[in-house]
Amino acid sequence: MAYELYYWDGLQGRGEFVRLALEEAQAPYVDIAREPGGSARMLEIMDGDGEPCPPFAPPFLKHGDLIVPHVANILLYLGPKLHLAPKDDARFLVHGVQLTIADLVTEVHDTHHPLSTGQYYEEQKEAAKVRATAFIDERLPKFMRYFERVLEQNPHGGRHLVGDALTYADLSMFQVIDGLHYAFPRATKRFGEHYPRLAALCDAVAARPNIAAYLASERRGGHNESCIFRHYPELDKTVR
Amino acid sequence: MAYELYYWDGLQGRGEFVRLALEEAQAPYVDIAREPGGSARMLEIMDGDGEPCPPFAPPFLKHGDLIVPHVANILLYLGPKLHLAPKDDARFLVHGVQLTIADLVTEVHDTHHPLSTGQYYEEQKEAAKVRATAFIDERLPKFMRYFERVLEQNPHGGRHLVGDALTYADLSMFQVIDGLHYAFPRATKRFGEHYPRLAALCDAVAARPNIAAYLASERRGGHNESCIFRHYPELDKTVR
């Protein structure tokens, strides 16, 4: 039974964290929004009155009758099935890292939308500049130093965030860093010097055969300014 | 073996979602920050170089050698042990609701800190007024209509968010609404008229013997302006 991924069309967005896991595992899935009538089906599930516990927002995963909302929750569900998470209590560590990544993603989003999600970026540019500066100066190094330390303190060596094998959190870490490079090329120019373990993890993920094939395929959409990771040069700044 | 809850002292904050679950289940737990030297022990775990996969931020739960970070993850771990979550796939629905609650909590926090967590509220009051207005006008009704609809569409009746029995998500829903009443008394004045099922859920949770005893105890700290739910009258507004 194929997994059905429901997410907005034309965006990497939060859906991309799920796609990377499905692609790495070569799991059968349908990206519903890319099917004819797919976006309408997504809204039907969200807004219809027939669904017990409808999702608040995309992405969500449908597998049989079960509908699982939220990236971290979807990966929690998929993790053991796709062999991308441990089955013992270490799964709570992987999930914890994923939730920290989710918090970082929200903070990246808020660099261009600090005041209201209902307004365009252009309507909140001044506030965005303040928030993006605080993000680059304080929050980004706080998160990245933390993730670098997680790799450093992994008793199995620094090749993975948790344990001695690839997990969905490693794939998501790649996606966040890739997005940060797109959105903030000046702030991340010396990323590899500042965070060598994270940079090596990213390279290792990108070089995995299934991920490399996916990244080169048409299924991998590009970054753009309708998404979470947006390149607005005026929000970027050099980091020494 | 008692659960150890690590969180900042003197705050309900995110720790309170965990406390409510532990109190409802009458589970043995130690609120570490309230013990002598507790805060130092918390920082040791977070900042020490000996911990595999240290937590990024409080709250976290220590149970034996396992350290579980993030409210939703802690409740995921505790849920089946405390009989506050189903053991079948419906656990992903409960976790999904909890993650939507977590997103709401972040948005509440950002009403008073829209630009930078490193600055005081007083340094970002103007932006806070814009964000709080958008929150009250757009985001709060979007979230609350959604949660009301989750109750309405529960095929087991509208007494619980998921299924036919109390879960940790019901307890967390109570906590959010309680906090919103404190932070935004004018915006929530007609809460019971607008969201009758949610109001009834809150009353039912508050009336549960273990929760009622907890709320009346010294263990329940008050709301205050160092926390997520802050009462700044200038950010509040009447909702018709």
Radius of gyration of chain A: 18 Å
Please give the share of residues in helix of chain A.
Answer: 40-55%
- Find the CATH topology of the largest domain in chain A: Glutathione S-transferase Yfyf (Class Pi), Chain A, domain 2
The figure for the number of domains of chain A is 2
Q: What order do the SSEs of chain A take from the amino end to the carboxyl end, as H and E?
A: EHEHEEHHHHHHH
The CA-CA distance between the termini of chain A, in Å, is 50 Å
Task: Supply the CATH class of the largest domain in chain A.
Answer: Mainly Alpha
Category by helix and strand content of chain A:
alpha+beta
Greatest interface and its residue counts? A-B, 50 and 50 residues
Strand order of the largest sheet of chain A: 2-1-3-4
User: What assembly state would you assign to the polypeptide chains in this entry?
Assistant: homodimer
Main β-sheet of chain A, in a few words?
4 strands, mixed
